[in-house]
Amino acid sequence: MEYIFRKSNKVKETLFRLGQYSMEVVSDKASRTIPYEGITDIRLKRKGKLFSMTIKTLAQGTLMITNRSYQHEGKLIDQSRAYMTFVRVIHMHLHEKGKVSFRTGFVLSHLLLQIIGIAGITMLVLFCMFYFDLAAKESLFIAIPIIIMCILIGFGLWIYLRLRSYHPTQIPLHLLPSTT
Fold first, then answer.
1. Would you state the pLDDT for residue 87?
2. What is the distance between the alpha carbons of residues 175 and 102, in angstroms, rounded to a whole number?
3. How many Cβ atoms from other residues are within 10 Å of residue 14's Cβ?
4. % of residues, the chain, pLDDT over 70
5. How is the beta sheet containing 39-47 ordered, strand by strand?
6. Is 139 helix (H, G, I), strand (E, B) or coil?
């Protein structure tokens, strides 16, 4: 299985060839072989109609592949069918031969921004309660926003830790391009 990808019109094509026990990456500079045992992490992301797969390796660094590529003339083309096939085949190889963590594109910085936003809103509510002298009358008015904030932060952490990983035989379909 081969996938040819060109990330910009200023660089040459990169060929990804999947073998029985390794993946070969051929670029204009060199050819390198990455054994499946050397791949540690696969991360699938989607931003609109742009689908990407990030491959983290022990010795070779990080590789990024998308469903869009540039032709020699600089025209952007959509390779969704070939990209989807490549993603499924590499998942099959890694499931059989590697110990890899498979994750979705959930980013830790987004979670941190949500936590900061929730804390900020809670502080704003508490400030308004003290300003309008509602907190002095009933201590329950202080406890409710803090409890809600803790619940929302806990739910956000649960989503971050639980829902972002997947099994390689059950690739989330929303992270694969539609070929219809």
1. 96
2. 12
3. 18
4. 87
5. 62-66, 50-57, 39-47, 101-104
6. coil
Averaged pLDDT, 19-34: 91
- Indicate the pairing of strand 39-47 with strand 50-57: antiparallel
Highest mean pLDDT among 4-8, 71-75, 110-114, 157-161: 4-8
Other beta carbons within 10 Å of 102: 20
DSSP secondary structure letter of residue 67: S
16 pLDDT more than 80: yes
Contacts of 132 (CB under 8 A, 6+ apart): none
- DSSP letter for 168, please: T
Contact between residue 14 and residue 76 where contact means Cβ atoms under 8 Å apart = no
Residue showing tokens 């059989």: 96
